[in-house]
Amino acid sequence: MNKISLLTVVVLFAATGLQAQEKNKTITDPKRNKEVLIDVVSREAFLTPVFGEYYQQDYDIYRPDETVLKQLSTKTKDVAITIVLASWCGDSREQLPRFMKILDQIGFDFGKLHMIAVDSYKTGREVDIAPFNIERVPTFVFYRNGKEVGRIIETPHNTLEADMLEILSSAE
């Protein structure tokens, strides 16, 4: 697994102007010929009529394991997360709302969350995702103290919260 430090991520965001970049942009995907999110996105993008139809339903239905959440809530203080996702992708549509619910329930600092949307070719327009070595979406990349400590790629092995706990526990 390629280790990208948090410093590298911060430099990537700064170098590409992501912090000042307009969020929640859409394009017509060249392969699917439909509107998709592209580049830096925020949670608000998934509350719009176009993309919110699946998001809110899956968010409301998902019931994370409370026991795992209690353990997880003590392990995220020094954690940053980058999510590379695709608004056209069924796995992203399923996993993102669940992941956001987990983060809400553990009180995660959303200032440490970065989300990047890609097109059908798994590329951005103004964001170079090549350093992240993305093969499948969504990919949830976890960093602790500036170093990548693990990933959840496409779907969890167990549940999102259990996989996240395993990653963050093994990196202590």
Task: Kindly summarize this structure in a few lines.
Helix content is 34%, strand content 21%.
Mean pLDDT: 89
| CATH evolutionary superfamily | Glutaredoxin
The total number of structural domains is 1
What is the chain-wise order of helices and strands? Answer: HEEHHEHEEEH
Number of helices: 5
- Order of neighbouring strands in the sheet with most strands: 1-2-4-3-5-6
Q: Level of helix content?
A: 25-40%
CATH architecture: 3-Layer(aba) Sandwich
Find the count of extended strands (DSSP E, 2+ residues).
6
What's the end-to-end separation, in Å? 18 Å
* The CATH topology: Glutaredoxin
Q: What composes the largest sheet? A: 6 strands, mixed
Gyration radius (Cα, Å) is: 15 Å
Which class best fits the helix and strand makeup?
alpha+beta
Estimate the strand proportion: 15-25%
Enumerate the spans where pLDDT stays under 50 for 5 or more consecutive residues.
1-18
Please give the CATH class: Alpha Beta
How would you describe the overall organization of this protein?
There is one protein chain. With 172 residues, this protein is an alpha+beta fold. The chain has a single domain (6-166), classed as Glutaredoxin, CATH 3.40.30. Helix content is 34%, strand content 21%. The chain has five helices and six strands. The protein has helices at residues 6-15, 49-61, 66-72, 90-106, 160-170; strands at residues 25-28, 35-41, 79-85, 113-117, 139-144, 147-153. A six-stranded mixed beta sheet has the order 1-2-4-3-5-6, with helices on one face. α2 packs across α4 (90-106). The longest helix has 17 residues, at 90-106. The model is unreliable at 1-18 (pLDDT under 50).
